[in-house]
Amino acid sequence: MLKRKVLDQLIAWKQKSQGREALLVEGARRVGKSTTVEEFARTQYESYILIDFARLPRDVRDLFENQRDDLDTFFMLLSAYYRTRLQPRKSLIVFDEVQRYPAARELVKYLVADGRYDYVETGSLISIKKNVANIVIPSEERKMEMGPLDFEEFCWAMGEELLAQTIRTSFERRAPLPDALHKRAMRLWREYMLVGGMPQAVVSYVGHRDFGEVDEIKRGILQLYSDDIGKFSNGDAGRVRGIFAQIPGQLSKHEKRFTLASVDKNARFRDYDSAFFWLEDARLVNICRNATDPSVGLAMYEDNASFKCYMADTGLLVSQAFADQATTPDDVYRDILFGKLSLNEGMLVENAVAQQFRANGRKLFFFSRRDREDASRTMEIDFLIVRGYDNAAMKPRISPVEVKSTKRYGTASLNKFRSLYGARLGREYVLHPRQLEVEGERVRLPLYMAHCL
Question: What domain of life is recorded for the organism (predicted)?
Answer without folding.
Answer: Bacteria
